[in-house]
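Incident log, structure service

09:12 report received: a user says their structure output differs between two submissions of the same chain.
09:20 pulled the input from the user's history:
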Amino acid sequence: MAAPNPTPRLNPRGGDRKGPGSTRPSLSLWYALGFILLLGLVQMYYLAPAGRPLPYSEFKTLLRNGSVAEVTVGEQTIRGTLKDAAVASAQGLAKQFTTNRIDDPKLVEELEQQQIKYSGEMVNRWLPELLGWLLPLVFFVAIWGFFFRRMSGAEGGVMSFARSRAKVFADDEVKVRFADVAGVDEAREELKEIVEFLKNPKKYTNLGGRIPKGVLLVGPPGTGKTLLARAVAGEAHVPFFSLSGSEFVEMFVGVGAARIRDLFQQAEAKAPCIVFIDELDALGKARVQSPVGSHEEREQTLNQLLAEMDGFDSRKGVIIMGATNRPEVLDPALLRPGRFDRQVLVDKPDVKGREDILRIHVKGVKVSADVDIRKVAARTAGFAGADLANLVNEAALLAARVDKTEVGPQEFESAIERLVAGLERKRVMSDKDRETIAYHETGHAVVASALEGQYPVHKISIVGRGFGVLGYTLHLPTEERYLSSRTQLLGELAVLLGGRTAEELTFGEITTGAQNDLLRATDIARAMVTEYGMSDELGLIHYEGNKRPKFLDIGMPQERGLYSEETAVKIDAEVMRIISEAHARARQILTDRREQVDIIARRLLSVEVMEGDELRRILGLPERDAAAPAAPAVPAPTPVS
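09:34 re-ran on a clean worker, output below:
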C-alpha cells in the first residue's frame, strides 16, 4: 500500500521525473504534423476546383465543336460542363472540366456565338488567403517549440546552463544507512546529532539551540566521505542533493552564482533535506591577490555561496554538507562559525576498522572458511575504505581466473601484493641483473632485521611488478604507529641505503636501482633537519615555510624557507652528515653478516620469493609468532630500475 502524500520523484535537474517511455516532445511534433496534413487534405478536396483539368487549347476546340454546355468564368480558372456525357466518356473526357484562364478578349464573343450559357464566379478569397499564411506559421511554430523544449528542457539543454546541476534523490531512494559505513566510528557518532535534528528539530529549538548550518567532512581520498553523507540522508529519511564543486564554475560569467541561487531555492522547497557538495576545494579555494589577476567567475561563485549560507535559516531543516581532502586551501570565510562551522575528520581506519570494513565487503563474495579476515586487516594498514573494497574485488577476480569456487587466503595475499607493488611482470632478464636485484633486496632485508625498532620483514621478491619495480621488500609492522622517533627515522635511513650498500660490497660498483631509495632517504633527512628539529647543529627551528597537504601525498613546490644563505649551507651539510652516517651504519651491518648475505641472495635467486620466517632462520633470529595479531602498514616497495 502506498504511503499518503508520497514525496514526488525528482530528476537530476530538479523537475518532475518522467518515466523511461516519456515522449512528450515527440507527441507534440506528431500532433503538429497531423494538423498540417489535415489542412492540406481540406484544401485539396474541398477548395480545389472540381473537374478534369484541360489545356486551354483543347477547351477552345470543344467550344468551337459545340460540345460545351455551360461555363463559369473565374479570375484564374474556367470551369465548365460538356453537353453529352456519353460522348465525353467515349473520348476519355469527364463531363466536368477545369482549365486555366488566359488573356483572351474574344472568349465572350465565341460563347455568345455558340449560344453557351456562361456566368462569372463569386470569389471567396478569405479562406485560401488564411490558409496561405496560417499553414507556414503553424509549421514554424511547431518546429520552434520542439527545438526550444529540447534546448531548455529539464534534461539539460543549452538554455538550462544557469540551473543547478544537483542530482536529487528522494527520501525513499537513499538506501544507505549507518550500518553500511564502518571504520569511521568517531565521524559517525558526530553526525548522529545531525540525523537527530532532522528527525526531531524541536528537541533543540525548544532549548534555544541552533544546529550548525554546514558540516565539512575532511579526510584522505577513499575514506567514505560521500558514503557517510548519504548515510545521514538515509537515516533521516530526507531528500538528498548531491553535486560536485566543479559543476558550478563555467566559462559564462555569472552562471556559477545563478546555479548557487537555484540550488538553495530547490533546497528550501524540499526542506528538510541535505545538500552535499563534494570536492568543495574546487569551489571554495582561498581568494588571493595575484599580479596576473584572479579567476573572477570562481570568486563570484564563492561569494554567492557565502552570501546564501549567511542568509539561510537553519530552522528550515536544510543541512549543507561538504567534503574535501584539501582543507588547507579553503577560504577562511567558509570555515568561520555560521557557515561550515563543524568539521568532521574521516580518517583512514585502524586495524579494527579495517576488519569491520572487510566484513561488509565480503558479504557478497564467496569466501572460504580458512580466510582469517583479522589477518587480512592486519596486513593492510594504510588502506582506506575504497582500497579495501578494491582488495576484495581483486581477490575475487584472481579466484575466478583459476576457476575456483571460493576466494581463499592465497587470493587475498596476491591481491595485497598487486595493490601495493603493482601487477606482476614476467620479463626476460640477464643473470647479472637478477643477481644485482637479489643482493639489493637482501641488503634492505638484512639491515631491517638487524636494527631494533624496525618493522619485521614479511616477504622479499625479485619478481618485477608495476612501473619500474624490479624487486621489493615488504615489511609487516606489529603495532599501529602514529609517531616516529629520531632513532626510528635513523634506522629507516639505514634500511633505505642497505640495498645500494649491498651492491657496493658485492660488486664493487653501483647501479641506478637505488634511485627511489635515495629520493626517500633525502626527503626524510631533510625533514629531520628543517621540519622536525632533530638536528643538534641547527636547533629547534622549523625552516620550511610552505604547508604540506594534510591528506594528499603530493609534492609541494620547492620554495626555500625564510633563512639566509649561510643557514642553507648548514642545512645541506647536516643532511649530508645524517645520510653518510646511515650509509656507514648499513655498511657495518652488512660487512658483519657478509656470509649470511650471500646465502640469502643465492636462495632468493633460486626461489625468487622468500618469506620473512625463512629470512630470520638464516639470520639466526627468532621467528615471528604467526598467531600474534599484526597491524601492518605496508610501505612502498623498493623499486629497482
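09:41 both user submissions now match this output. Likely a transient worker issue. Closing.
09:42 reviewer note: The two ends are 66 Å apart (CA to CA). DSSP finds 21 helices and 14 strands in the chain.
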